[in-house]
Write a structure and sequence with these properties.
alpha/beta; 9 strands; single chain; about 260 residues; 10 helices; globular; 2-enoyl-CoA Hydratase, Chain A, domain 1
Length: about 260
């Protein structure tokens, strides 16, 4: 990743770890087409680098990832919302699968807010470490949407009761709850220190041993991609083009309650 023009993702290699840093503070590291492209390029570079034993996915600022870039979607004047959703869903599906399929471990280093699609990124990582400033929420239902594609990487990480609650309510929860329900591997006081310790452990493992061991832990998730991705992509496209979702996203951008909300 040598092109620094309009860069949203920084790529650095040190001590056997390739660090991909989401660095798009103007939109809270929201998932845009360019950010997805740069993340996938970084993952490919890490896969091809024999000096890299593992990948760290982290962020600048107080937000790890705010989910889909709704401003990018709203700026596409005259475009069909369902068609735009189909493109975005394809990009997100390919990104999540690239993380899961990468033959090297991927560690999420989080110490900020994680929302919607950002939850999918955390779920796709093999190990996730959350610092004290971390908060998490699946906010799609509050916008008239559903966590369609990201359910492929988030649901396998959660207990059934936690999935039933947080997919439906959109409630915010902290790092210790995230650890208790399985979304993150560990809630810690110092995420960078914890990740460095994990890096030390991973450097003791062989590349082949890591790749083959990772296959054991991801094979069922990848089978769900093969089985359900098309159906979930169709659901996502349908919902993004619906009247309720358009009202929900518009209300969010305008910082008002949507017309279908019920006060109480």
């Amino acid at each position: 990743m040598t092109d620094t023009t309009d860069r949203l993702v920084r790529y650095d290699v040190a001590d056997g770890l390739a660090t991909l840093t989401l660095d798009s503070p103007h939109n809270r590291n929201a998932i845009s087409g360019r950010l997805v492209e740069q993340l996938r390029r970084g993952l490919a570079d890490a896969a091809d680098d024999d000096a890299v034993r593992a990948v760290v996915l982290t962020h600048t600022g107080t937000t790890f990832c705010a989910g889909a870039d709704l401003w990018e979607a709203s700026a596409s004047a005259g475009a069909d919302p369902a068609e735009l959703a189909a493109v975005r869903t394809t990009q997100m599906t390919e990104l999540l699968r690239a993380i899961v399929e990468l033959p090297k471990p991927v560690i999420a280093q989080v110490d900020g807010h994680v929302r919607a699609g950002g939850m999918g990124l955390v779920g796709a990582c093999d190990i996730a470490v959350a610092g004290p400033q971390s908060t998490f929420a699946l906010t799609e239902a509050r916008l008239g949407l559903a966590a369609s594609i990201i359910s492929l990487t988030v649901i396998p990480r959660l207990t059934a009761r936690a999935a039933g609650r947080y997919f439906l309510t959109g409630e915010k929860f902290g790092p210790h709850e995230a650890e208790a329900i399985g979304l993150v591997s560990e809630a810690v006081q110092d995420a960078p220190v914890a990740v460095r310790e994990l890096g030390t452990a991973l450097r003791k493992c062989s590349p082949q041993g890591l790749a083959e061991s990772k296959k054991l832990t991801t094979m069922r998730m990848l089978a769900d991609f093969d089985r359900y991705a098309d159906e979930l992509a169709a659901q996502s496209a349908r919902l993004f083009g619906s009247e309720e979702a358009i009202e929900g996203m518009t209300a969010f951008l305008q910082k008002r309650a949507p017309g279908w909300s019920v006060d109480g």
